[in-house]
Structure formats: structure tokens, C-alpha cells
Amino acid sequence: MNVNKTQLTYVHTLPQFNKILADPTKNIKDIYLPTEEVAAIVWENKKQFIPQDTTTNVLLAAFTTTWARLKLFRDRKVGGRCSVSRYRQYHLRQYCMDLEEKIPLQDPHKIVPDAKKRKFLRKEETKYYKLVYDKRVIQPDFTTLSYGY
Fold it and tell me: Which domain of life is it from (predicted)?
């Protein structure tokens, strides 16, 4: 996470102004005067003094990823619906799942506008998941590669 972002500080007194300018941990990028009484100082921390990010929780991220993978493997074993028959990894962090059939997604209360009557109607709608090759290059054997590979 990028914690060394540019900061903007407004100072009203000369001691505050001198304190920020004399601070060895700050890299001053710009100084301007929005009014006669206020100075604006744009600064960032020097590379040696970047504060540690305490908001990122590595354990929580690992738990979330693991839980999602366990759920995916559990759904693989579901019978009667679309299930994953096998996993393949083409290269780093690009996975492919071979699906046995399509999954219908039913929405019995889809809200659609009726432009002529100026009303909203509820209709039943069914969509199917399908294989999409929009963002990859199809090879002659119908495998795909990412662009630029």
C-alpha cells in the first residue's frame, strides 16, 4: 500500500513554517501562498522515513483467499449443476476451469422500464453463464493466452 503520498499542510505562523522547512524527514515539493496570512506547503516523507502501514492485515488477506479457494473446491463437488471438471494453470496467477455445462441464473423479479407507459415492470429473466474470449488471444487448439504473452 502506498503510504508515502504527497501531503498538503497549511501554516498560519512563522514558527510552524520554519519547523516544517527544517524537518529532515520531509521532502518539500512546493510552497505557495493562497492568501497573505496562510502558506501552503506540499511535502512528502523521504524514502528513509516512510511510516509503516498498520491498516493492512496480512492474516486477514490470507484467510480470505484460503476461504475463497476452499469454497471453490467445495462447489466443484456439487452434482446436478455446472461443476468444474478440472483446473489448469497456464502461467503465473492465470487459472482456467473446464466447465461441464452452463449455469442458468434466474431472476423472477427483474425490474425493467416500460418507456411507452412510463412505468416499471417486473418480469422473469433467465441468463446463462457462457465462455467468453474477449480479453485473450485464441490459439489454434482453442487455448487462450493473455495479450502480449
Answer: Eukaryota
* Domain-located, residue 121: yes
Task: Tell whether 66 is covered by a domain.
Answer: no
Grid coordinates of 52: 509503516
User: Which among 97, 104, 102, 122 is positioned nearest to 112, based on CA atoms?
Assistant: 122
| 3-state secondary structure at position 27 | strand
The structure's pTM equals 0.39
Residue 99 neighbours by CB distance under 10 Å: 14
In a domain, 77, yes or no: no
Enter the C-alpha cell of residue 26: 520531509
Classify residue 130: in a domain, yes or no.
yes
* HSE-CB for 143 with a 13 A CA cutoff: 10
For 17, the enclosing helix (H) or strand (E) is helix 14-22
8-state DSSP, 117:
T
Taking only the tens place, the pLDDT of each residue in 62-104 is 888 888 877 776 665 555 454 455 555 555 444 555 555 566 7
pLDDT one-digit tens code per residue, 4-52:
789 999 999 999 999 999 999 999 999 999 999 999 999 998 888 887 7
What is the tally of structural domains in the chain? 2
**Full domain range(s) for residue 28:** 7-45
